[in-house]
Amino acid sequence: MRDQATKLREIFSGSVASTPTFHNTYAITVASGKGGVGKTTISVNLALALGELGYSVLLWDADFSLANANVLLNLPPKFTVRDILEGTATVEETLLAVNEKVWLLPGASGIVELARLDGHTLTTLHAKLSAMEEKFSLIISDAAAGIGPDVLALCQAAHELLLVTTPEPTALTDAYGLLKALAHQDFHGRVWRHTFVIDHASPELLFLTPLTEGEVVSVYEVGDKVVCYIPTPVKAYQFESVVVQNRSDTVPYIVLERPEQLRPVQRRRFFRVRVLHSVKLLPISNENEASLDQPVEAYGTDINGGGVGIRLDLRKIPPTFQLREHQRLKLIISLPPVEKAFPQGLTAELVGEILWIRHNGRSLRIGIAFTNIDRKLQERVIAWCFAYQCKLLRLGLWRDEV
Hints:
Blueprint: H1 6-12, E1 26-31, H2 39-52, E2 57-62, H3 69-72, H4 81-86, H5 91-94, E3 96-97, E4 102-105, H6 119-130, E5 138-143, H7 149-157, E6 160-163, H8 169-184, E7 196-201, E8 205-210, E9 225-231, E10 236-247, E11 253-257, E12 263-265, H9 268-271, E13 273-283, E14 296-304, E15 307-313, E16 328-335, E17 346-360, E18 363-372, H10 375-395
Parallel strand pairs: 1-5, 1-6, 2-4, 2-5
Antiparallel strand pairs: 3-4, 7-8, 8-11, 9-10, 10-11, 10-12, 13-14, 13-16, 14-15, 15-18, 16-17, 17-18
């Protein structure tokens, strides 16, 4: 006798397979081991925060039998992942728009068959989601509690795993249990990012000492392949190498094969930093436009040598201040102090052009390109960004797409 769950049981009867990694989109899996530790809350707020930073984010509620991310977002779904598996809905039809940057792929709730999701079914879902990768810059998977095959497969498929726990002994024990289960599964979902200084070099080898605090050398085993980036105030370079030696003694270091060549990469990729700072705007008025006596205050969210991203409270915009794309503005940018390099911070007065405007609730997000900036001032801005990035690197706080 066929019922509404027959097709799901047919899917589950197949062999278990591993889930491939997403290649074009950075994937984060949020897991916990124990339920009730705040995993879904973190997943939802992480997606919203990354959306605020400008990323296009897919939040995948991968708790396939007791999903509740849609409850936190107050978004009743018309379709769920169950409909995708049964073929009664496509991924596009199932997605729910949280805002202009964040989408939710809702899971199902109360479906027993989905509680036994296996690797084969996840591979099927992965294939359907892969067609949507280009639409998103990040995929956040909110995994179920426990160490079932669906959880392990999602962890394996991610570039980065966020393990959520609490000080409760049961939560800590279950989180450790998940790590042990992943270790037995030969987990390769981690991407380590650490900062090293090239101590010295020979014709064949590079000797690197860690700048990142904590025990990092032991992560790199002999034979591991690594991708390295060397940012400088003038250019940035990338190369691939192999670890030939490591040492965690009094003076820890690793030794890499010296690369045959360095490949230059886009410099602005390294020197765009996300930092809150003060920006004052003053429109450059045409003859038929009203001018402002006082600049409008906003705050910057990111900056590099070519432009700045700002957020402007709609309530602070005077009625005579009409913003539009390609409008030219006078900018007064105040950047915070950075240790010895810029102990007094940096103030830059320049002209910019609005490239895009996005409405976000009670504020506007605006991207501005510098159109009239002195070369020396531009180099000062780049140098400040470089110094600020180095500060974050020393603190182990720098995160970027590279």
